[in-house]
Amino acid sequence: MHMGSMAAHDCCANTAWTILRNGIYTLRALVPITMNENVTITYTEPTQGTLIRRQKLLESKYFECTCRRCSDPTELNSYFSAVKCGAHEDLAGNYFPLDPLSHSSAWKCDTCGDIKTVQWIQKVVKDIKEEIDELSGSEDSISSVEKLENMLQANSGIRVHENHFEMLRLENEILQRISYFMSLNNGSNITKNLSTKLADRMIQLSEKCLAVVDMIWPGYNRFRGMLFSYCIIAWFVLNDVIS
User: Fold this and answer.
1) Which residues contact 187 (CB under 8 A, 6 or more apart)?
2) Which of 99, 76, 80 is nearest to 13 (CA)?
3) What integer is the mean pLDDT of 9-30?
4) Is residue 140 packed enough to be buried (19+ CB in 10 Å), middle (13-18) or exposed (0-12)?
5) What is the DSSP secondary structure assignment for residue 10, as one 8-state letter?
6) pTM of the model as a whole
């Protein structure tokens, strides 16, 4: 048995595995690991909410995850699965599961105490997911970026918390579209004003996503690296515009 297979699962793991070109399996620390601390990897996708992660782990790995992230209704204060309560004009309320380790738990607003069924919560998230999926298949253009931005404005902090995992996916989709559009035009066929606007937006979205990822998936990981790459692209564009 390979030593790497002995690492336990955690939805907020402290290591990640890689197989190098020569076939050697490597385990790399994502964050500092203290003496006697368990070495963990994740068996699932960290950028999914608790309900989805735990269900997939149950179906594929046959166990119920009870890690600190799954056990916390707020997912380590990230509000990564929080759905907004529409009973408040300022949309201050957020629904959280009463028992995050139960697949059928009711969800309660942290402001007014209103109770919703898990089916109601899932319906809200499902509707948003389908809307994003529909736009994700559209062509890469500035108009598609604008449609995604409109969707973000209509949902982020309105139907779900701004840190919600579907908002993270939507923001990443916007970043991918802007990055592709910028590379396709390579600085030509677009004005300096538009280049500056898109580059600024890339930095803004990347920094926002990084703040969320730092809570639910800290340390050195592929998603964090991708977000930094968007920042680098934007910085190069801004440098060209200034010079």
Assistant:
1) 195, 237, 240
2) 76
3) 89
4) middle
5) -
6) 0.91
